[in-house]
């Protein structure tokens, strides 16, 4: 499949790509404040890879606010209970296996900004519900999103939440044959 900009999409993903990219940036950072923030983001992204709600919540302030923008509306969870529910639903809906190919990282004393492409495996019904034009809700698809995420931090270096903006091509989903699905994705169904 050819994406915008002429890139080709493959059906394999690297779940560790995001945190490894941020860790590379951390290794080049000599500012202690920025280093603390980058390490917290590495820990957050690793927790997302491991689908560990406990580890993930440990990177956040006690009452985080997420602002996730889609078509002009903020649908992000507000508060610890809502954030826990958001991540639990992510796992339950079988869309927690993803790759964030970060192309740009900007850091100041209060915020990290990342920009790149997120690709995630999704059941057809979920992909269609998100707005992708998929022909069969009983198949699995790899769906790409273009995303910019602002990661704000408090004085102690804990994440205040996420402010995310994304866009996607409704025709950009690619069907993935069952034999090409990774074990990490299939394992989600065994837990259901």
Structural account:
The protein is an alpha+beta fold. The protein has one domain (13-191): Roll (Nuclear Transport Factor 2, Chain: A). It is 34% helix and 32% strand. It is built from six helices and seven strands. The protein has helices at 17-27, 32-50, 53-58, 80-92, 124-130, 183-191; strands spanning 60-70, 73-74, 98-107, 111-123, 140-152, 159-167, 174-176. Strands 1, 2, 3, 4, 5, 6 and 7 form a seven-stranded mixed β-sheet that branches. A hairpin with a 2-residue loop joins strand 1 (60-70) and strand 2. Helix 1 runs antiparallel to helix 2 (32-50). The longest helix has 19 residues, at 32-50. Mean pLDDT is 90; it is low at 1-8.
Q: Main beta sheet, described?
A: 7 strands, mixed
Count of helical segments? 6
Q: Quick one: CATH class?
A: Alpha Beta
- CATH architecture group name: Roll
* Record field, number of beta strands: 7
Global geometry: globular
Instruction: Classify the secondary structure makeup into a structural class.
Output: alpha+beta
Low-confidence stretches: 1-8
Average predicted local confidence, pLDDT? 90
By CATH, the topology is Nuclear Transport Factor 2, Chain: A
Number of domains: 1
| SSE run | HHHEEHEEHEEEH
Strand proportion: 25-35%
Rg of Cα set = 17 Å
